[in-house]
Design brief:
Length: 303
Amino acid sequence: MDWETERRDWPHANASEFVQAGGLRWHVQRLGEGPAMVLLHGTGASTHSWAGIAPRLAKRFSLIIPDLPGHGFTTPLPRRSLSLPGMADAVAALMEKLSVEPALLVGHSAGAAILVRCCLDRTLRPDAVVSINGALLPFQGAAGLLFPPMARLLFSNPLVAHVLARRGRDEQRVARLIEGTGSTISSEGISRYARLFRSPSHVEATLGMMANWNLKGLRRDLPELDLPILLLVGEDDKAVQPREAEQLRSILASAQIARLPGLGHLAHEEAPAQVEAALLAFAETALEGGPDASRDARALAGA
């Protein structure tokens, strides 16, 4: 995507900067003051995903919000590196270049998996982690058998990204795609996703992540995560099954769950205030090493 063309109405464009790290030119937004917090979007999104919640969190934290490799305005990784370990290494290289030692990591969907991988690899050492509808477990059932090979097949054909990008011109099609995740977002949000999906490079990076996404290693290593982690769960999420949170709590000794009734996969875009309240209730105690924050987090989330 061309920054000079898009910047005039891109959310928080005045907070954007471009940083060379790990062989990539990263688009990063930085807002606020206080302890450092990383916000990492999921597959197919960009910094715009945090547009509603970022100003709220910036009152308490210094935010670092990057576009993932190949997404939005960040240049892509080599195809062989579009895996969970490859993405995690790239994000860690960016934080090292920025000289950031984040206190709190917040990831949505695949972004949560990337940040947890960084923690397990000790390339990032935060005080706590927040997963918003995190994709932390391998696909189950038929989806696990069919989805990765199908994504690899699509990714192997360089023309597919261009064909799919042409479909991004139809905002109604994009709206149906978003609705399929269980979320209802604003027309402005739909328009931003459509702008992303009209970019062949963005579509190719999205397909590349899906084609190379293997969470078996993450699932194997999850019990080693020794940090407080909050699992924010949209109860209407149709992309990541809400019941996975209970599986994760049985794996992660320090996991807390805060349920978000009526919200889908893009919960932080649907209800920024609700997600912020649960996140801050957790952060205020987790970052201070205080008592369990799960009761307050669930109450503020409306669970």
